[in-house]
Model the fold of this input.
Amino acid sequence: MHWRTFALLLLLAPSIGAMEAVERTNPEDLTRLTFARIEYDSVGGMGEAYYQFEGRIWARWETDYPQAEHNFAKRLQQLTRIRASENPVRRRFDAPDLGDYPLLFMSDVGYLRFSDEEAQALGTYLKNGGFLWADDFWGDAEWSSFERLMRAALPGVRWREVPLEHPIFHTVFDMDEMPQIPAHSFANRVTTVEPYWMHRYPAGSLEHPSMRGFFDEQGRLMAIGTHNTDIADGWEREAYGQWYFERFSTLSYRLGVNVLTYVLTH
Done:
């Protein structure tokens, strides 16, 4: 994967905090870090594969896209020396250029459907040094949806919870807990847990946020699922009120910067 050379250049590049915030780059410019959002199919109909929100119909894969990536790229450039494109791209797992992207991001995977070819392509990508981050899925049934994909992509590899002592929680910011970020629509001052009836049955417990990891035989972390939390909503909704920003977006950005920096240096 030729992006490893770019990773070193990105981390050593001069700070661009003073660059104009409105600068845009070509999504195919691989001299900048470009985020790849995974486009996937989902089972079911309205309320499952699709849902209505803010006056439009969203496919599950679109959740938080592209505003979350756009905001995160801007903050990443302010907080680190990484030069990131503010224009994310969308790809399926079987895209021929998937290896151009060091990190694949997918969201709201609770009703995920995939083909054998897509699972095989994902497995090849991960074994070749790529990294997958799945976010915003809550409860037992939604986790099972993602776990089926990972079992098909990486036969014999099982997940384990990533402990807070792992370097991924300390690459830039020291984090002493796995943050539980509710979608802005459910955020309140009483609880950070989203309502169980908004998630796939059987929901089981939604109380405990965790980062669950898939490691290769050498101990390299290949994929993570941030479960019982919605990290990307903290990016997307940063402008939806000072309280939400200070309470949740700041934690979302800290974890995002840590994960991205970890991926580029391991």
User: Anything to note?
Assistant: The first strand starts at residue 36 and ends at 38.
